[in-house]
Amino acid sequence: MGKYEKLAQDIVVNVGGKENVSGLVHCITRLRFTLKDESMAQDETLKNMDGVITVMKSSGQYQVVIGNHVPEVFEDVCKILDLENNSGESEPPKKKKKIDLLIDTVSGIFQPILGIMAACGMLKGFNTLFATLHLYSETSGGYLVINAAGDALFTFLPLFLGYTAAKKFGLKPMIGLALGAAMCYPGIQGSAIAEGAKPLYTLLNGTMFASPVYVDFFGIPIISIDYTGTVIPIILTVWFASKCEKFFNRYVPDLVKFFFVPMLTLLVALPVAMIVIGPIATFASTLISEFTLMIRSFSPLLAGAIVGATWQILVIFGIHWGFIPVYINNIMTLGYDNVMMPFFACTFATSAVVLGIYFKTKDKKLKQMAIPNFISGIFGVTEPAIYGMLLPLKKPFIISCIAGGIGGAFYGHFNFRKFIMGGMGIFELPNMMNPDGSMGNIIVALVGIVISMTVGFLLTVIFYKEPATQSNLDGKVTKENITETSEAEETILFSPLNGKVIPLEEVKDAAFSSGALGDGLAVLPETGELYSPINGTVVALFPTGHAIGLSTDSGVEILIHIGMDTVSLEGKGFETSVSVGDKVIRGQKLIDFDKDAITSAGYDIITPIVITNTQDVLSIKKTNKADVTNNDMLLTVKR
Questions:
Q1: Out of 11, 81, 147, 187, which residue is the most buried by the measure of CB atoms under 10 Å away?
Q2: Count of alpha carbons within 13 Å of 2, Cβ hemisphere only?
Q3: Would you call 78 a catalytic residue per the annotation?
Q4: Is 65 helix (H, G, I), strand (E, B) or coil?
Q5: Would the pTM of this model clear 0.90, i.e. be above it?
Q6: 551-595 pLDDT, tens per residue?
Q7: Which residue among 27, 184, 346, 401 is the active-site one?
Q8: Partners of 70 in the beta sheet?
Q9: What is the rounded distance in angstroms from the CA atom of residue 168 to the CA atom of residue 384?
């Protein structure tokens, strides 16, 4: 029996049985039954049940308040009632700004592997360092084993991202893992196909997009591309696969769903990845490399700036591969490459920005991430820093691109070159030594590193400002708007809204006013923006956007419910900017809502902010202010 199956059975019995239920939905805290005859429901029995907080009747609905576990209880109740599960689990919001959606999605997908990614980057760097110092050779077994430990994640990155992206998009994780493995499968990798093989024909021959085709999919050409180490192709593929799985789940009979749905999902999603996503990445790569070559013909400085400023973005989208053939061809024919090499500035610009964040931030978690990310960045592995720190914080990522562009412009202007392929980060420097033994090119390399790091570090120190949090209040906890503090560990909740503070007891909803859902305060908002009151994680987000659950790293759980019974608006007037699983920082906008439209529709806009695990905290102190902004402290939670 499932964890909540017994509770679900008892609830169904006490609302009058299966035959008395004509409809069921749920919001973030309660089951909302539509009953044929409410008099059949046993109110007091339900209220006294373990697992039920209270019972309410509002807006024609019979509401059984459950709390944080309502989605699981809802699922078990639906099974008993033979209702289709339409709980509307949180999906990526449809009305986000596209760039914010992309950044939040990519960052959320990378979050589970950031620690191991930083560890692998450091392993790769130290292994190269020790080999360079001749502590052991690059052909030794020790080197090979350590290199495998450090390099495997980056080589087979689509496997890891296939798994985490599947969890993000609601696809079965094993299907995401299978898609990632298929995209790294040696038999269909571009390098494996091209080696010693003759193409069947050349697609778009005579144009800049000319592409040799070595295999086809039942007559449809597959353009060869190496997906190992790429990011966006697997994320897009898993997103598409999640849609396929939902479609097949709807139409495949239950008897054969277990194996037919995964089979059909893989059968459709993988060819789309190879036939559509691959060519898009390939053609975009070609356009960018050709554009850069054209610019370089009249301004090496400008071309270097473009490569340096955009390289990280190209890597994220997996469209930097267009430079690789140019890079290899230049070294093989000219004896050096000067087209792709301005990207060298990005490695050190990124590392310097991470170092700047380390000195600027007072967030302990960011400081802990900064040290290994800086080390691996210097060694040439910047992915942990990009996906774990710079992209989620946004402004530091922009700074790193600017610093990389300035360093790249310097490299372009002074014809910076690399003569031998191989190496990463500082370990590329030996390959930049002029064949005649002169030091000119090495000097250019070192000066470019200094420029990139100086610009990145200074811009970060000057322009990066993190929102105020508990860890950087510098003793302000005892100011006039907080009643008192103690020696216990404290978590400060800032107001998520601008408006008037309302005692929770005055909220016209018994589940909140009674404190059944937790202690806290309410705010009557003056504007239609909801901000994060803490640094933490989005743990719940109702699809209609009217309610959100957050958790701090210290374990404080927060529920913010915009308005009363606003679930009935079915999302009208609400626009979310985050998804479940996203990391958020204090002051980050979470939800936009049309305050006037909501009140015009007849709904109370008062917004409770409650600590749902009140039983796990020592005390909750509340602000004395009558009016607050999102820069004011609202609650102090002691654990």
A1: 11
A2: 13
A3: no
A4: strand
A5: no
A6: 888 888 899 999 988 888 888 889 888 888 888 888 899 999 999
A7: 27
A8: none
A9: 19
